[in-house]
Write a structure and sequence with these properties.
Layout: H1 2-13, E1 20-29, H2 33-39, E2 47-50, H3 57-66, E3 71-77, H4 96-109, E4 113-120, H5 128-140, E5 145-148, H6 157-163, E6 168-170, E7 173-174, H7 181-198, E8 200-205, H8 209-224, E9 227-229, H9 232-240
Parallel strand pairs: 1-2, 1-8, 1-9, 2-3, 3-4, 4-5, 5-6, 7-8
Helix pairs in contact: 4-5, 7-8
């Protein structure tokens, strides 16, 4: 009976709800313009997360924005293994003032960013004070959203963001810890299944040729199965209020890693 009522409502309103919303973030973009051009051939609803202060950071962000992609800052953060962070990294040595200055410079190098996620960060995302300072800085920069890449299972980043009223979400699936097309496809369909079960999911991949090939081939097939690709801000909006999400088609206003720890 319930399915019959739902079918009648769909016929009456003309609204067909997706089987699930899926956001895909491509991390680690910004150090190679040629690679960025390949990423930009993906559908515009794929989100690009761009590393700061690299040779192609600014031009990639500008091109992505012009083509309709949502842009994020892929913020390097301290890891437990102390991997090299590259330009614009945040560490435990940064004071609140230092952190704010580094983040501001990074955002200037990635124009149009509407949110951030962590590049590495298994150490810093577990530190309450650093995460509180980061969320305060995001508020001052227009209430940017935060996606926790969950490189640390004990991360306090998402909880801190939520407590402070920052729009936030977490990564559900890494697509390409293994650069094997069959495994990448398997992980993509795992993300799609999570989207069906939970209503939405967030998957993170990297600009590897294998990942881009799988996405180009499989995203149209997932669409035929009712999986609706959306920018990250739209998935966060849905997760915040699934009951009212379909009433609006506009993204969140400025609401906007890596598998390595």
């Amino acid at each position: 009976m319930r399915s019959l009522v739902l079918a009648c409502l769909i016929l009456a309103t003309g609204v067909v709800r997706a089987a699930g919303l899926l956001a895909i973030i491509i991390d680690d973009v910004g150090n190679n313009a040629e690679v960025a051009r390949e990423v930009l051939t993906l559908p515009p609803r794929v989100t690009l997360s761009i590393l700061p202060r690299l040779s192609a950071s600014r031009q990639t962000a500008e091109a992505a924005w012009r083509m309709g992609h949502e842009v994020m800052l892929h913020q390097p953060m301290d890891s437990v293994n102390h991997h090299t962070l590259g330009p614009g990294g945040l560490t435990l040595d940064h004071t609140r003032v230092d952190l704010e200055a580094v983040l501001a410079a990074n955002l200037r190098s990635v124009p149009h960013a509407v949110g951030i996620n962590n590049h590495m960060g298994s150490l810093l995302t577990g530190e309450q004070a650093s995460m509180r300072w980061l969320m305060e800085a995001l508020q001052r920069h227009g209430n940017l959203f935060f996606v926790d890449s969950r490189t640390n299972p004990r991360s306090v980043a998402q909880r801190t963001a939520h407590t402070m009223g920052i729009a936030t979400a977490r990564r559900d699936v890494f697509l390409d810890n293994e650069r094997d097309p069959a495994r990448i496809r398997e992980r993509l369909y795992q993300a799609a299944q999570l989207a069906r079960l939970k209503g939405s999911a967030i998957a993170i991949g990297h600009p590897y040729p294998e990942t881009l090939e799988v996405l180009r081939r499989e995203l149209p097939r997932l669409r035929e199965q009712g999986i609706e690709l959306q920018p990250v801000s739209r998935v966060i909006a849905y997760q915040r209020s699934p009951e009212t999400w379909h009433a609006s088609s506009s993204p969140l206003p400025q609401v906007a890693k890596s598998s390595k720890p």
